[in-house]
Amino acid sequence: MGETILLVDDEEGIRKVLGISLKDRGYEVLTAGGGEEALRLFRKERPPIVLTDIKMPGMDGIDLLQRIKEERPETEVIMITGHGDMKLAIESLKANATDFVTKPINDDVLGIALKRAGESMRLRRKLREYTENLEGLVEEKTKKLMEAERLAVVGQTVAAIAHAIKNITGGLTGGAFVLEKGLELKNEKYLCQGWDMVKGNVSKIKGLAMDLLNYAKEREPDYQLCDPNRLIQEVYDLMLPHARENGVTLHIELDRGLPEIWLDPEGIHRCLLNLVTNAIDACNDISCSETGRAVFLRSSKGKNCAVEYQVADKGCGMDKETRGKIFQRFFSTKGSQGTGLGLMITKKIVDEHNGDIGCESRRGKGTKFFIRLPSNEQASGSGKTP
Predict the structure, then answer these.
(1) What's the pLDDT score for residue 194?
(2) Phi, psi (deg, nearest 5) at residue 342
(3) Strand, coil or helix: what is 383?
């Protein structure tokens, strides 16, 4: 049995004659004597083709066409018109009828209209199959691409971690060698030097492990109402002895008019600490002059933000290519001395605050990092505050 056709006409004789003709063509035929009955039967059986008279009492063919197209736009609807109903026929085509035939119905003309409807259905099915296959292909290719990217990232991550561990183990090996020599020669100076090397590299391992854990850990900022100057002052006080040991002058300039804001004090403290540590290291670069060994910490009311922190140095600076990589995974300007995790973590924390981080730098002219934080007033009612 072929496709199902719903035949709608208020004249029983026409229904019988057309029904026989359609069955001879291999169609399964449903019949209805009016628009209301046809709509009920259509909703129940969902036939793909409807052949309906235009002029009928009650719901006419145009109304039936519009209702069918609203519910199932893909249904092929062929209209039956009289010779004087050309205006209605054109109106039905505007309402997305597939075709129309005129009474008395010519069998060949009806065959052409039915063939056109069948071709339209076949094209629609092919398009649907093609679309489904295409969607499946896109999904499959996307999965493969994402897996390849994931493996590439894993590979880069493993390589970077392995490189950092290799540098640290090299330092440990060197420290152990100096210790052994100190024991062998009973040389206290070698013993102290070797022990300091071992302790320093153990500290590096601990720092690497903590940085990896902090970067991988998903967390929401623990918002607290804080004086933004307190955090940068704490970092200044903490890093002042380290700066002096390295011959770097540390300056601080605070905007005393800043109000308290909602932020995660532990997270922002870590960000500022990372930036100040990097700035001091930049001042120790061999290309840095004695006059450039200075780091500046600043706080101010930024434009369109609650607070702007700045950490600036007069160190070696960075070229454009280096600036474009500083927030990438495991990129470091410190060679074997860096893991490339510090700025990654800093950016992650700032992003968690919906803030902004960036830098301005020129080779040989120093570097300025800024962190801009929004007010985050919504955090006060979020249940994340103490």
Answers:
(1) 85
(2) -60, -50
(3) coil
Number of domain units in the chain: 3
State CA 266 to chain mean position distance.
27
Q: Which residues pair with 200 in a beta bridge?
A: none
Q: What is the CATH number of the domain that holds 94?
A: 3.40.50.2300
Report CA Rg, the chain: 39
Query: Which stretches of the chain score pLDDT less than 50?
Result: 330-339, 378-386
216, 249, 270 - which closes a domain? 216
DSSP string of 275-310, one letter each residue: HHHHHHHHHTSTT--GGG-EEEEEEE--TTSSEEEE
* Each residue's pLDDT tens digit, 156-203: 556 556 656 766 777 788 888 888 888 888 888 888 988 888 887 787
Picking from 183, 216, 249, the residue at the C-terminal end of a domain is: 216
| Whether 311 and 240 share a structural domain | yes
Query: Does 355 reside within a domain?
Result: yes
Tokens of 76: 């092929």
Token pair for 248 = 């770097």
Q: Are 250 and 243 in contact (CB under 8 A)?
A: yes
Whether 205 and 245 share a structural domain:
no
SS3 108: helix
Pairing of strands 224-226, 261-263: antiparallel
Strand ranges (E), the chain:
4-8, 28-32, 49-53, 76-81, 99-102, 224-226, 249-253, 261-263, 294-300, 307-313, 356-362, 366-373
Boundaries of domain holding 74? 4-105
* Same domain, residue pair 207 and 251: no
